[in-house]
């Protein structure tokens, strides 16, 4: 268990009060109303306040020109509706915001591949795609948010970027049943394998996930879709996940060769570009309670985090991100708490078919948030057995990986300890 998470009390409280006051007086919305992306997702109070601004209090010339008598009538109706809604909003906040409902459990695991070697070994046990998760399902389902990286599309397509099928990944449609069973409710699609079966593979994935009610982010029919946050509402809180990947513009396979990056008219992934991410953070930050950024990055088959990653992660936290969830190296790297916000540099493989024992071990990251702040964090060791299921090792079976992780976290300045076979 993590010993201490710093709480910056009075200053943040003051800021929070200021923000709440600004929101409810409408100043925030008049400042923010030109930001079209942020306006996409607005609660009833802020929508109402925008209507209020239409009566000339806004500095925006276009809306002032629209004023006419019918506007005035609708304004008056709208105005009383606003008061009612604000009153209800405040009342419901008072009565429903109990500490229990404000607590939120977020669980994250790493790369999921249920095709290739894993599929072969699942077929040895009646082809049941819930089998990989049976020994961890009770832990995973405790999460209100359960995140994973889907490394490759869910598709039955055979038209891949590599005709020999060696460096391309996919999982069968049936894999979605296992993912759903595990309680995973949001998937990262921004990675260097999601387009391995061209656009068809991605579109199949999106259809299958929609059918199973599993949220996803990081890839889509165009760049706007790829950058669109996955939004999940739980316990009265709104959580957003946005995802980006390295290697998006790097073309090395396919006939024709394919760049994975999406653009205005092309499907694909959202690339890890700071300016892009900053724009997306600014657009959504005030609309959600917890903002998660998922990054497919880092050095493959390595336990080490680069200086560039540390700087990048710190910058995103400074920009307002609450949690950073990294993946791609296939190994679970160190975890850092920076200004009270968790950075998981690489979640490692959760279930994959790689042979290296270091790539068959990782941790389930379990985080609890109270009052939108990290109050608890635990790393639960997991290991893939027989390439077809995940177990939670105990005692001697877990000690080596626990010690290694303690050291990796220590290198990043994190204070943590081994307690009951977990960190
Ligand atoms: Zn990768």
Folded structure, characterized:
- This protein is an alpha/beta fold.
- It has 2 domains: 9-96, no CATH class; 104-411, Metallo-dependent phosphatases (Purple Acid Phosphatase, chain A, domain 2, 4-Layer Sandwich).
- The chain is built from 15 helices and 16 strands.
- Strands 1, 2, 3, 4, 13, 14, 15 and 16 form an 8-stranded mixed sheet that branches. It has a 6-stranded mixed sheet with strand order 6-7-9-10-12-11, with helices on one face.
- Helix 4 (44-53) packs antiparallel against helix 6.
- The chain is globular and about 50 Å long.
- The structure holds zinc ion.
- Zinc ion is lined by residues 151, 191-192, 296, 328.
Number of strands: 16
CATH superfamily of the largest domain: Metallo-dependent phosphatases
Overall pLDDT metric: 81
Kindly state the percentage of residues in helix. Answer: 25-40%
Give the class-level CATH name of the largest domain. Answer: Alpha Beta
Small molecules bound: zinc ion
Q: CATH topology of the largest domain, anyone?
A: Purple Acid Phosphatase, chain A, domain 2
Secondary-structure-derived class: alpha/beta
The CATH architecture of the largest domain is 4-Layer Sandwich
Radius of gyration (CA) equals 23 Å
Count of domains = 2
Helix count from the secondary structure assignment: 15
Query: How much of the sequence is in beta strands?
Result: 15-25%
Distance between the termini: 5 Å
- Indicate the low-confidence ranges by residue numbers: 12-80, 89-100
């Amino acid at each position: 268990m993590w010993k201490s998470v710093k709480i910056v009390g009075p200053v943040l409280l003051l800021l929070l009060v200021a923000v709440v006051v600004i929101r409810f007086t409408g100043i925030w919305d008049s400042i923010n109303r030109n930001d079209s992306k942020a306006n996409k997702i607005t609660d009833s109070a802020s929508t109402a306040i925008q209507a209020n601004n239409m009566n000339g209090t806004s500095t925006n010339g276009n809306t002032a020109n629209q004023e006419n008598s019918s506007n005035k009538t609708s304004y008056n109706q709208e105005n009383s509706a606003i008061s009612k809604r604000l009153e209800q909003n405040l009342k419901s906040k008072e009565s429903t915001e109990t500490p229990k409902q404000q607590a939120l459990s977020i669980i994250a695991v790493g790369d999921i591949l249920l095709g290739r070697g894993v599929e072969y070994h699942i077929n040895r046990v009646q082809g049941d795609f819930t089998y990989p998760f049976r020994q961890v399902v009770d832990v995973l389902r405790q999460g209100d948010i359960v995140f994973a990286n889907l490394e490759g599309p869910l598709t039955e397509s055979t038209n891949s970027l590599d005709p020999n099928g060696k460096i391309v990944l996919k999982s069968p449609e049936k894999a979605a049943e296992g993912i759903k069973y595990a309680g995973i409710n949001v998937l990262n699609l921004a990675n260097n394998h999601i387009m391995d079966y061209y656009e068809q593979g991605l579109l199949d994935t999106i259809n299958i996930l929609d059918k199973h009610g599993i949220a996803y982010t990081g890839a889509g029919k165009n760049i706007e879709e790829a950058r669109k946050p996955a939004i999940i509402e739980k316990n009265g809180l709104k959580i957003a996940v946005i995802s980006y990947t390295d290697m998006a513009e790097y073309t090395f396979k396919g006939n024709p060769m394919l760049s994975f990056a999406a653009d205005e008219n092309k499907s694909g992934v959202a690339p890890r570009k700071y300016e892009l991410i900053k724009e997306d953070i600014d657009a959504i930050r005030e609309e959600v309670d917890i903002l998660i950024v998922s990054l497919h990055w880092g050095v493959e088959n390595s336990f080490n985090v680069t200086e560039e990653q540390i700087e990048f992660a710190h910058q995103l936290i400074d920009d307002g991100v609450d949690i950073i969830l990294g993946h791609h190296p296939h190994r679970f790297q160190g975890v850092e708490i920076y200004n009270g916000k968790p950075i998981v540099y690489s979640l490692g493989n959760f279930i994959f078919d790689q042979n290296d024992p270091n790539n068959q071990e990782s941790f389930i990251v379990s985080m609890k948030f109270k009052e939108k702040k990290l109050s608890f964090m635990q790393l639960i060791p997991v290991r893939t057995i027989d390439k077809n299921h995940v177990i939670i090792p105990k005692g001697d079976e877990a000690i080596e990986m626990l010690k290694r992780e303690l050291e990796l976290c220590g290198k990043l300045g994190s204070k943590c300890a081994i307690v009951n076979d977990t960190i």
